[in-house]
Amino acid sequence: MLIEKLKQKDNEKTRPLYEECFPKDTKRFVDYYYSYKATDNEIYVIRDGQRIVSMIHLNPYRMQVGSHVETLHYIVAVGTAKEYRGQGLMDKLMTHVLDVMYDRGESFTYLMPVSEELYEKYDFVTVYRQPYFKIEHPVIWHRELEEAGYTFRKAIEPDCADIAKKSSSLLARRYDIYAIRNAYYYETLLEEQKAQKGGVMMILHDDKLIGSFLYDRENGYCIREPLIEKKYEKAVFGDLVLSERTNVMVRVLCKENLSVPMKNLYLNEIV
Fold it and tell me: Going from the N-terminus, what domains does the chain have, and what CATH number goes with each?
């Protein structure tokens, strides 16, 4: 069975396999994924006849890497149909896409694994662990902070440019490697969060935007990617209780194109 890169107009054909491999994803989220992310990503597949039985998705992001900007790919939706597992199809696909990205001169690729052991043999290493926080009573948390002069507002599409500007400023001051935020990034993020019963929350102090965070309500009230001016960090997020961490693994591809160490980095929270 041969590896095939789908034409983007055919990416939707992987949806049955996606739904088989990731049954915990809601229909609402899968609708979002195939309406937004699968319209401009790269999908490599293996077929048995006409049926797609194994796949890997490469989702592109513009990344600031030290002093330069490049398009890198986030590996997602790695899956094989149940009756075809154990035949080496995923190994074949993974090896192929790593070669493709290397040949293009991409400095690294990354993913969030279900199991780190699955990817260690491909020289992926865990570089950091993204924190998730849960709040029992968000209304009370907001109210207490509002009494101290903070206000919270759910972002809508016209807010995306302002959030991107603030986030970009915060990231540039703190990190060497990070996913570039622009208005479209947050417009897409809004749709992803809505698909998870959440949104993007803006944080203001004296009517000035000082930061933001992502939230969803699929399993309680969960906060991710808290970005805020340093002097307000303790007051707003200091009492949050860590719920879990998601591992982020990186595989360096073209070391000669990597101008900074893989240490001080902040990758994207979206698919």
Answer: 3-126 (3.40.630.30), 130-246 (3.40.630.30)
